[in-house]
Design goal:
123 residues, Rossmann fold, alpha/beta
Length: 123
């Protein structure tokens, strides 16, 4: 399985990369939403995208909106992975196309639980 991690924090990308690789995912990374879209142009066959909300250039919400406009990307599960804990923002993310929402700080178990909710079993 393949995962795209879109987060401007190098430390958070590293944490998520390590967790996802442990779970058997091949990982691609991007530092903002625009880079994330570029990565999806290169390889649209991702199973899941783990996306931060607050990033420069293109934030996570705009990334999800842009992603959902492309039919070939419609099957990719999207997990917002963010420090945003406002219920209104969570609802907005889900309304524009996110499938799940995980709050930072994250644990391996929390990621596994969210992946299972998305129908993506860990290795």
């Amino acid at each position: 399985m393949k995962a795209l991690i879109v987060d401007d924090s190098r430390a958070m990308r590293s944490l998520l990369r390590n967790i996802m690789r442990e779970l058997g995912f091949e990982v691609t990374e991007a530092a903002n939403g625009l880079e994330g879209l570029d990565r999806l142009q290169e390889d649209p066959h991702m199973d899941v995208a783990l996306v931060d909300w607050n990033m420069p250039v293109m934030d996570g919400l705009e990334f999800v909106k842009a992603m959902r406009r492309h039919r070939q990307l419609a099957e990719i599960k999207v997990m917002m992975v963010t420090a945003e804990n406002d219920m209104g923002k969570m609802a907005r993310a889900l309304m524009v196309g996110a499938d799940e929402y995980a709050m930072k700080p994250l644990t391996r178990d929390a990621i596994i639980e969210k992946l299972e909710l998305l129908g993506l079993s860990a290795a």
